[in-house]
UniProtKB/TrEMBL annotation:
Cofactor: Mn(2+)
InterPro entries for this protein: Aminopep_P_N, Creatin/AminoP/Spt16_N, Creatinase/aminopeptidase-like, Pept_M24, X-Pro_dipept-like
Similarity comment: Belongs to the peptidase M24B family.
Class of enzymatic activity (EC top level): hydrolase
Molecular function, one GO term: aminopeptidase activity
EC number: 3.4.11.9
Name used for this protein in its record: Xaa-Pro aminopeptidase
Ranges for domain Aminopeptidase P N-terminal: 6-142
Pfam families, A to Z: AMP_N (PF05195), Peptidase_M24 (PF00557)
Reactions accelerated catalytically: Release of any N-terminal amino acid, including proline, that is linked to proline, even from a dipeptide or tripeptide
Keywords carried by this UniProt record: Aminopeptidase, Hydrolase, Manganese, Metal-binding, Protease
Highest taxon above the source species: Bacteria
Length: 430
């Protein structure tokens, strides 16, 4: 891995928190992701399943974590299963975890090779009453591919039909949404790498550069700072492309007078950052562009203040909608009649700001978190309002990542990334 090794104490804490929530006499199993084939002998780059990483720090394929806090013997309470490594694998694929190295990474002392998994699991099942299976229940998830986890669940249910079944996901939704200080430091590091990429861009962008050249500048800066690259598919949308919310073609020329909406961010050690900035191709905003820009910035700043303990996500978005409505009236994009006659199910402001303002962020860009439960300290959220005006051929979105505090306003992990219009103009014209 490119990133510096994470102290295993984080994963020890995470496992303790998870096991404290398990039912008596129960086992939980977590599988790594597959390496997905493309065709012939080609594969996609490996990306670890975030749950097994969260609980163990293990970042390689064909790995399994078993947790059994009530096991008869202490050595059976936390077990890692790894693909057996050897000199041939080291030559052809690179170094894999040895048993000693796995202990250093995870803090787990009992490590078996993968071929022993079924034998060991069978013994654990004779002691246990309940199995925790790890299903994907994220509110945005749409999964068509049968994952390694799904194959395991199918096999386990056939092999052990007399055991009770419980779900890991509800526990993880709550645990992963509240970050440990080490996790916040990792997200901050990802944000700092993102800052370096953005500052690099401000000296690079000029009329007639292409969106893909901008993407290349970011990729260069991210990777040279120990990131694998983008935390998600980058959006580099110049001109009217910004009005396509998930524009990812990034193949157009950036023209003088246009804006570029950049929804781009680095990952670090599997932790995401998630930034959006909008900058002028020519280095100066027009008066109209700046007026809309500053309206979005005001909404972002006011919305950020609301991310406090006890806030409910749904009500928060209602309040943000009121602020956005006021700004749109000031810009002349809405009038009073639009607001008075609006459909409560789709308020008038949604014509120009049709997406949500905030989501949980962490190991996943859209991270775990139960949106119907009140916000808590050390949750990390995005704040990302936007105004999209196809008739004027530009859209503006601004986005920061913030940590909910015990008291007062959230802590902005992107506080050092330029966002004021005047500062962006100054840096682009140095």
């Amino acid at each position: 891995m490119k990133y510096h090794q994470i102290n295993s104490g984080l994963f020890v804490k995470n496992r303790r928190k998870f096991m404290a929530e398990m039912k008596p006499n129960s086992v939980a199993v977590f599988n790594s992701n597959d390496i997905y084939p493309i065709s012939a002998d080609s594969t996609l780059p490996f990306a670890q399943h975030r749950d097994i990483f969260y609980l163990s720090g293990v970042d390689q394929e064909e790995s399994i974590l078993l947790l059994f806090p009530d096991a008869p013997y202490e050595s059976q309470r936390e077990i890692l299963f790894l693909r057996e490594t050897n000199d041939h694998i080291a030559v052809w694929e690179g170094e894999k975890l040895t048993k000693e190295r796995a202990f250093q990474v995870s803090g787990i002392r009992t490590v078996y090779w993968l071929q022993d998994f079924h034998k060991v699991l069978n013994e654990m099942m004779t002691y246990a009453d309940t199995m925790y299976i790890n299903t994907n229940e994220h509110y945005r998830a749409t999964v068509e591919t049968e994952t390694r986890e799904a194959r395991f669940v199918k096999w386990w249910k056939e092999r052990y039909p007399a055991h009770n079944v419980a779900k890991s996901n509800p526990i993880l939704q709550r645990l992963r949404s509240v970050k440990e200080s080490e996790e916040i430091d990792l997200i901050q590091h990802a944000c700092d790498i993102t800052e370096k990429g953005f500052r690099r861009l401000l000296g690079f962008v000029k009329p007639n550069v292409t969106e893909y050249e901008v993407e290349a500048e970011l990729a260069h800066e991210f990777i040279r700072n120990r990131s694998k690259g983008f935390a998600y598919t980058p959006i580099i949308a110049s001109g009217n492309n910004a009005n396509v919310l998930h524009y990812i073609e990034n193949n157009q020329q950036c023209k003088a007078g246009d804006l570029i909406l950049l929804d781009v961010a680095a990952e670090y050690a599997n932790y995401s950052s998630d930034m959006t900035r909008t900058i002028p191709v020519s280095g100066r905003f027009s008066d109209r562009q700046k007026a809309v820009y500053n309206a979005v910035l005001r909404v972002k700043n006011e919305a950020t203040k609301m991310l406090t303990p006890g806030t409910l996500w749904k009500q928060y978005h209602v309040e943000v909608g009121k602020i956005m409505t006021s700004e749109l009236l000031g810009l002349g994009l809405l009038d009073k009649a639009d607001v008075q006659n609006e459909n409560p199910e789709w308020p008038a402001y949604k014509k120009y700001f049709m997406h949500g303002t905030s989501h949980h962020m962490g190991l996943d860009t859209h991270d775990y978190g139960l949106l119907h439960e009140p916000m808590k300290p050390n949750m990390v959220f995005t704040v990302e309002p936007g105004i999209y005006i196809p008739a004027e051929k530009f859209g503006i979105r601004l986005e920061d990542n913030v940590v909910v505090q015990e008291k007062g306003e959230p802590f902005n992990l992107m506080r050092n990334i330029p966002v004021e219009a005047d500062e962006i103009e100054t840096l682009m014209n140095e």
